[in-house]
Write a structure and sequence with these properties.
This protein is of the alpha/beta class. The protein has 19 helices and 25 strands.
């Protein structure tokens, strides 16, 4: 049987004009700025002027990713359409895709099958230009920093201690380390430099955590870009860059409104990676979804040890959000990979491999229910090759933790395939919860990192390199000790070693360096071989993308 590709499904669906989605939300035209027929931006002033009670917040997260796939975004969208099917007023809040993975390995991030946000081509490519605005603000700051040094260096900046890098929204390993300012005195001050991918820029984190224009400006002003010869931090505020950066970001800060294939309203806004940043869509978009819907469904990147941990410990802490329920997405196929099978071996029943892999799911579920104290349901994306015995084994193991398992077929059936999941989510949202963080803020940076490793990852301890210990001591002496930590870690394992699948134990995580993202308001701890500028694979997804003479795109997924 030949299946339609995601892009073919999206292109064959008749979309509602965005004005109809605006009407569905009951929005006044004064808040809406249209970007063509199917996209709009919504003014953040809505949050100040519309003061009704917020709806329930539901987080969709997942097990540790594998090449077999989990379908987190697809589940998020399908659950939202399922809630709409049972008569609930629901709004989705998702991240924007980065061009890096779109043209690299992962492809787009607009869902899949019959559970997508559309127009998927626009969302996966330039969309409304938000990422370009973020990149421009990042690079303006870099240009003003280097110009300050060139024009006399009144702030006494040490060029060897510049921490601010340029960025581009593309996987380009060639730009990880560069030397610039060459060609004589008129062309700048020669120094070592480098590029991050835009989603790893601190501007992206600031953009997604800001609650207003005023908060955005305050956060931008706190960004540390370098240190002086006498080791004092230099900020964007001291470079007088904040006003111009805000001017570049003011329209981007308005959340983007689109729709699902079934016409459910969806905000798609902001997109930091969860393995190198905090992995959540913007606070403003999430709050807008909660203000306009009785249920706001959002997701966080990669597995629950990354995206959900940062959503709960960083985003919810800063924004004052309390989730009502968590959906944990899993597939039997992925769990069998965690049990040691190769991707080519997943088509046949293997209860032994499944039993070996299930602890990965159970640790994630236990973290949500026991560490964060939130109600949880497991959503299993069912594949045709999954047997009843395999499904029953997952149900049995989760039941021992007091968590229900619901089968989801949203990829094939859209909202109809998410109705049972929607009913369980509604049930969970009515339960009281005692939401807690995994660590307090008033302990040392080392202790916060250790608590994440031990309580969330299941590790034994943390090894701090001498360089990391020195950086921590400096940051604490500068007054940055009482803010959250953001772990930069492989997404493929609970540990910092991507080869350790399942639910490894007795491992030690090595923190090789630590830096402050003072504007975002967190400490970044870099572990393993995590890089802030990915590279393209041997055969990039970009090689399969094309456009015909009518402007119709193919090969995008």
């Amino acid at each position: 049987m030949a299946y339609l590709t995601d892009i073919e499904i999206a292109q064959q669906t008749k979309l509602e004009p965005i004005t109809k989605i605006v009407d569905k939300l009951g929005l006044d035209d004064k808040y809406v700025e249209q970007y063509g027929k199917y996209k709009a931006k919504v003014d953040y002033n809505l949050l100040k002027e519309r003061t009704n009670k917020d709806g329930k917040l539901v987080l969709v997260t997942a097990i540790t990713p594998t090449p077999a796939g989990e379908g987190k975004t697809t589940t998020t969208i399908g659950l939202s359409d399922g809630l709409a099917k049972i008569g609930k007023n629901v709004v989705v809040a998702l991240r924007e895709p980065s061009l890096g993975p779109v043209f690299g390995v992962k492809g787009g991030a607009a869902g899949g099958g019959y559970a997508q946000v559309v127009p998927m081509e626009d969302i996966n490519l330039h969309f409304t230009g938000d990422f370009h605005a973020i990149g421009a603000a990042n690079n303006l700051l870099a240009a003003m920093l280097d110009n300050h040094i060139y024009q006399g260096n009144a702030l006494n900046i040490d060029p060897r201690r510049i921490t601010w890098r340029r960025c581009v929204d593309m996987n380009d390993r060639q730009l990880r380390f560069v030397t610039d300012g060459l060609g004589g005195r008129v062309n700048g001050v020669p120094r070592e430099d480098g590029y991050d991918i835009t989603i790893a820029s601190e501007i992206m984190a600031v953009f997604c955590l800001a609650s207003s224009i005023t908060d955005l400006k305050e956060r931008l002003s706190r960004i540390v870009v370098a240190y002086t010869y006498d080791e004092k931090p230099v900020t964007a505020g001291q470079l007088n860059a904040v006003g111009a950066m805000t001017a570049l970001l003011k329209d981007a800060l308005k959340p983007n409104l689109v729709q699902t294939l079934e016409g459910t309203p969806a905000f798609v806004h902001g997109g930091p990676f969860a393995n190198i940043a905090h992995g959540c869509n913007s606070v403003i978009a999430t709050r807008m979804a909660m203000r306009l819907g009785d249920y706001a469904i959002t997701e966080a990147g990669f597995g629950a040890d990354l995206g959900a941990e940062k959503f709960l410990d960083i985003k919810c802490r800063y924004a004052g959000l309390t989730p009502s329920a968590v959906v944990m997405v899993a597939t039997v196929r992925a769990l069998k990979m965690h049990g040691g099978l190769q991707k080519t071996q997943l088509g046949t029943e293997d209860l032994v491999a499944l039993e070996k892999g299930i602890p990965n799911l159970l640790r994630h579920v236990s973290n949500i229910t026991n560490v964060y104290k939130l109600p949880c349901v497991v959503a299993v994306n069912r594949f045709p090759t999954d047997t009843d015995a395999e499904i029953n084994l997952v149900i049995e193991k989760c039941k021992a933790l007091g968590v229900n398992v619901v089968l989801s077929t949203v990829w094939a059936d859209g909202g109809n395939g998410g109705v049972e999941l929607a009913k369980e989510v509604v049930r969970l949202c009515e339960q009281p919860n005692d939401f807690s963080f995994s660590y307090p803020l008033d302990v040392s940076i080392q202790e916060k990192i250790r608590l994440v490793v031990q309580r969330v990852y299941g590790g034994k301890d943390v090894n701090f390199t001498p360089a990391a210990l020195k950086q921590i001591a400096t940051l604490e002496s500068l007054g940055y000790g009482n803010i959250p930590v953001c772990m930069a870690k492989t997404q493929y394992s609970f540990s910092d070693d991507p080869a350790k699948l399942g639910a490894p134990e007795d491992f030690v995580v090595t923190v090789r360096s630590v830096k402050v993202s003072a504007g975002a308001g967190f400490i970044v701890a870099l572990t393993g071989d995590i890089m802030t500028m990915p590279g393209l694979p041997k055969v990039p997804a970009a090689e399969k993308i094309d456009v015909d003479e009518d402007g119709k795109i193919s090969g995008l997924f």
